Recover the amino acids of this structure.
């Protein structure tokens, strides 16, 4: 994939570009687990699932790094929704045992570097 060209003909740096690129952004999918989805009351559960699957497809289309984060799988919360997991089978699922995703060093590192080992 080549770097985008600015209107003045110069090549834009995908890391520092003000537009989102796979080199300066990542999609983080947090707690899309069956037990979590069941607690949502503001949207139909199938529509919620369809929406995140569509977002994930777009992320794949544009080669964005994707992180799946789950909470309390070991305590029965379940893994990422099967529809999403099958689409993102090459993305790592990072388990947390607390609610705050911004305190997980592995996830913070991915956000800061905007890269996953699988996409390096």
């Amino acid at each position: 994939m080549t770097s985008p060209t600015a209107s003045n003909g110069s090549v834009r740096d995908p890391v520092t570009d003000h537009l989102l690129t796979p080199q300066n952004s990542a999609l983080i999918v947090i707690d899309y687990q069956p037990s979590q989805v069941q607690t949502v009351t503001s949207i139909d559960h199938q529509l919620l699932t369809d929406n995140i699957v569509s977002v994930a497809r777009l992320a794949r289309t544009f080669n964005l790094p994707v992180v799946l984060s789950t909470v309390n799988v070991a305590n029965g919360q379940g893994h990422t929704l099967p529809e999403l997991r099958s689409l993102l089978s090459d993305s790592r699922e990072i388990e947390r045992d607390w609610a705050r995703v911004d305190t997980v060093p592995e996830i913070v590192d991915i956000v800061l570097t905007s890269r996953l080992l699988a996409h390096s």
Observations:
- The two ends are 14 Å apart (CA to CA).
- The chain has four helices and three strands.
- The first helix runs from residue 34 to 37.
